[in-house]
Specification:
Largest sheet: 7 strands, mixed
Order of helices and strands: EHHEEEHEHEEH
Structural class: alpha+beta
Radius of gyration: 17 Å
Strand order of the largest sheet: 1-2-3-4-5-7-6
Number of domains: 1
CATH topology: Aminopeptidase
Strand content: 25-35%
CATH class: Alpha Beta
CATH superfamily: Gcn5-related N-acetyltransferase (GNAT)
Helix content: 25-40%
């Protein structure tokens, strides 16, 4: 999946991508309240998260062609279980991280669109996003993520006040939701991600 504007290409993540994805994620932990983790996970733990996700859900990366002819991963997106109970299987929690030098470049939309296509092919109906927010933007957190998800078609469904403590400050959290397919009286169980990979390559060029 490409766009002429920024030439970003989306593909399925591999274990070999883990160091670069870890490199993108770590500053969000160290320098922002976007994630409520206090310390970046080890590379080993991060890699295990990636492998575990791909057993059931999409984990996608966006690559950009560089002037020297190489490619560089500039962001990633993945889905995870919304809740463990089986009645929740048609809903997933989504997470997206873009290299902080690539913000507002369109990479986030490209990644999100690819994730939505992938989830729809699996038979997922609901995309849920847990987003840190702040009543007073500061150097660690703005509400850009909430606005991005609004732009992607999510609606606000819940708000929790002063539930996250980081950098000596209290931050809020919201849940946002997007329905991506109709909710029927009967519905087939979602297909595990490995079983739709060929369809994604054929229909969307995500391989």
């Amino acid at each position: 999946m490409t766009t002429p504007k920024d030439r970003a290409v989306v593909r399925i993540a591999t274990v070999q991508d883990a160091p670069r994805l870890h490199e993108i994620y770590a500053p969000y932990v160290r320098d922002t309240a976007v994630t409520f983790e206090y310390e970046p996970p080890t590379l080993e733990a991060f890699t295990e998260r990636l492998e575990r996700t791909l057993e059931r859900y999409p984990y996608l990366v966006a690559e950009r062609s560089m002037p020297d002819g190489t490619t560089r991963i500039v962001g990633y997106v993945y889905a995870s279980p919304f809740k463990d109970r089986p009645a929740y299987d048609w809903a997933v929690e989504t997470s997206i991280y873009v290299d902080r030098d690539e913000r507002r470049s369109g990479v986030g939309r490209i990644l999100h669109d690819a994730l939505e296509c992938s989830l729809r092919e699996q038979g997922i109906l609901n995309m849920e996003a847990c987003i840190a927010t702040t009543r007073t933007p500061d150097e660690h957190l703005t509400n850009d993520s909430m606005y991005f998800h609004e732009h992607m078609g999510y609606r606000l469904v819940g708000e929790f006040r002063a539930c996250g403590y980081k950098y000596g400050r209290w931050y809020d959290m919201v849940w946002m939701e997007k329905h991506i397919a109709p909710h029927e009286a009967t519905h087939a169980h979602p297909t595990p991600f490995p079983q739709v990979r060929e369809l994604l390559a054929e229909r969307y060029g995500i391989a």
